[in-house]
Structures are given as C-alpha cells and as structure tokens.
Design brief:
This protein has helices at 21-31, 47-55, 62-71, 76-83, 98-109, 113-123, 153-157, 181-188, 200-208, 211-219, 242-253, 289-294, 316-327, and strands at residues 12-17, 35-40, 129-132, 138-144, 149-151, 163-170, 192-195, 223-227, 231-233, 260-264, 281-284, 298-302, 305-308, 311-314. By secondary structure, the protein is α/β, with parallel strands linked by helices. The protein has 2 domains: 1-41 and 176-335, 3-Layer(aba) Sandwich (Rossmann fold); 45-127, no CATH class. The strands form 4 sheets. The protein has a 7-stranded parallel sheet, with helices on both faces. Strands 5-4-6 form a 3-stranded antiparallel sheet. Strand 13 (305-308) and strand 14 (311-314) form a beta hairpin. Helix 1 crosses helix 13 (316-327), helix 5 (98-109) packs across helix 6 and helix 8 (181-188) packs parallel to helix 10 (211-219).
C-alpha cells in the first residue's frame, strides 16, 4: 500500500499586544499546538513592573511574565511560583511577582531584555517564541483633544481626557525605538498577524508605533486580524464603536491595514459585571458593521463572550479556533 506523505505545517501566527487579554488567547492557541510568536509591549509603567523599572533600568516585565506563563510547558506548581505575588504586608517585596524579579535579574545578566527572555523561554520550556517589542524600555506619549501632551501609560489613562494619538520614545534618551530583526522577520513570514485583544492605546498601539514594527505590519503578506475589545475602557475608548477602534489603528499607521475584525455579538447580561472590581471597563462596545466595511474589513461576528468572576472576557478557545481557521486560508483571499 502506498503511503501519502504531506508537507503540512502549522500556520505561523504572530500575536501582538499586551495586558491581560493576550495570555488568554495565547493559552488557547498553545493548546491547539499553533506555531506562535508573541510580540509583547514594553511601555508599561504601572504596578510591580513600574516600580522595578524605576529602580532597575530594565524593560517592565509584567506583560512578558504573563505571556511566558501562558506558553510554558512547566508543571503547574512551577508556574504558580513564577506568578506568585508577595503580600502587601511584606514591605520590602510588597506587590512584586517573583517572575518580574527573575526577568529583571536576567536582563542585567544578559545586558538586555531580549536575550533574557530567550534564555528564560528555554528554561520554562516555551512552545513558540516570546519577543519583547523592543530591547529598550519605552515611554508611551499621548496627545489629547484639548491640545495637551502627557507621557507615561498610567498618567495617560488617568488623565480623564480623550486621546487623539500616541507615540513611543526611548527611556534611554534620544535613541530611536526599534525592534530587533527577529520581531520583524516573524511578522514578515507570518501567515496571520493578530492584534489584541487588549487596550487599544496602551497595549496594542505602543507596539505599532515602533517604526519598523508598524512598517512590517503594513508590508507583510500575512492577513492582519484585529480582535476587537468587548468593553469600552475608561480613559481610552469611551463611547467607541468597533469601527472606531479600527479607524484609530489605521490612522496611526496611515493606511487601512486591518483585513479582518473579530467581533463579539453576545450581549453581556445586565448587572453581571462587578464595576468596582473591574473599574476600567465601562459599557459594551457598540457595533458599526457598515463603518467596518467602509474601512475594507471583513467582519467575523460570533459569541466570543466568556463570563467569569463577575468579569467580561474573550472565550480564548473560540477565538483561537477562529484564528487558526483564518491562518490556514491563503492570504490572497483576504488581502
């Protein structure tokens, strides 16, 4: 009997972003054995990451830590230790996650975050690749509708103003922010580039505002998919429709580069969400399918909603299955 040998390979998926939404999708893609590269923002200046950045001149490690844990094959006990955050009454280490301290230490040992994360990826038995968007810490800057400018992620989201545009500068002086060649190569050779889910102005756009990253996302032959947020965010996307999210992305890069948008159409039950616990989220994003089509986007709408702990999340498994399906399609079908 003749055996038929196929040259099947898993589609190459590059996911760009940061924040709490990114690991949810990565965990589900990991379960599907996808060929994953995560490009993670390095412009965070809040929480444990911000404190470490203030005292140690390294890229803030929090988002990178969560992505490493999502793609790791270590036993759960080891991951629990890596993710452990000291209690607030431990004054010296209050609020710090052990993984953040490990990443900061390796960054000093390896003279940079990129090599540190590659070393840690081996130690943690990572499937795929985790790439910091830049080897240097970046500062997020914003221009507001009232004409004012503010620097720093926490300051921007806490300003209570409408953001018009954002950009990044190096925390190391006049050096121009750039991504290492591995990041650019991953984007250019991908089958699909995924943006989000995550905060539009503070998790997704900081990556795209690194000039060679933005250029690569516009020039890649891969289809570019945006996973639209389910809820609007205080200080960022108040009153935004799904089309306005995409419009902001396109305006920042000066081109209609988003090919496909994943939109949740399942309503969030009234009074389900705990707005004290999840105080940054406001109301459900409204749909503007006509506006999305005017932006040359294909829209995939479905029930992508996951309700958990009185919070609203994407159903990682449903999104991952949809992304894997899209990644298996020829790019010329979309672009």
């Amino acid at each position: 009997m003749t055996k038929h040998i196929t040259n099947y390979r898993q589609p190459r998926i590059v996911v760009i972003g940061g924040g709490t939404g990114l690991p949810v999708i990565l965990k589900s893609l990991h379960k599907l054995n996808a060929d994953i590269t995560a490009v993670v923002t390095v412009a965070d200046d809040g929480g444990s990451s911000g404190i470490i950045r203030d005292y140690v001149n390294v890229v803030p490690p929090g988002d990178i830590r969560n992505v490493l844990a999502a793609l790791s094959n270590l036993p759960q006990l080891y991951l629990d230790i890596f993710q452990y955050r000291f209690n607030s009454n431990d004054s010296f280490l209050a609020g710090h996650a052990i993984g953040n301290l490990i990443i900061a230490a390796l960054s000093e040992m390896k003279s940079g975050i990129f090599d540190a994360v590659q070393e840690l990826s081996t130690m943690m038995k990572i499937d795929g690749h985790v790439y910091p968007a830049s080897n240097d810490p970046l500062i997020l800057n914003a221009h507001f509708s009232d004409g004012s400018d503010i620097a720093g992620e926490a300051e921007i989201t806490g300003a209570g103003k409408q953001i018009e545009r954002v950009w990044v500068t190096s925390a190391l002086g006049q050096k121009k922010p750039h991504a290492v060649k591995e990041v650019i190569n991953a984007i250019m050779t991908a089958d699909i580039v995924v943006l989000g889910p995550g905060s539009l102005f503070t998790s997704i756009l900081p990556n795209l505002m690194i000039e060679n990253v933005g250029t690569a996302v516009k020039q890649t032959k891969a289809q570019v998919v945006y996973v639209c947020n389910i809820m609007t965010q205080k200080g960022e996307t108040e009153h935004f429709t799904d089309a306005e999210h995409v419009r902001v992305l396109n305006q920042h890069l000066g081109a209609n580069f988003v090919n496909t948008v994943l939109v949740n159409t399942q309503p969030v039950p009234d009074n389900y969400m705990d707005h004290q616990k999840y105080d940054e989220y406001l109301v459900q994003v409204q749909h503007d399918f006509h506006g999305l089509r005017e932006l040359s986007c294909r829209v995939i709408s479905d029930d992508f909603l996951k309700l958990r702990d009185h919070g609203v999340f994407h159903d990682g498994d449903k999104v991952a299955h949809e992304l894997l399906h899209l990644a298996s399609q020829p790019s010329e079908v979309i672009k």
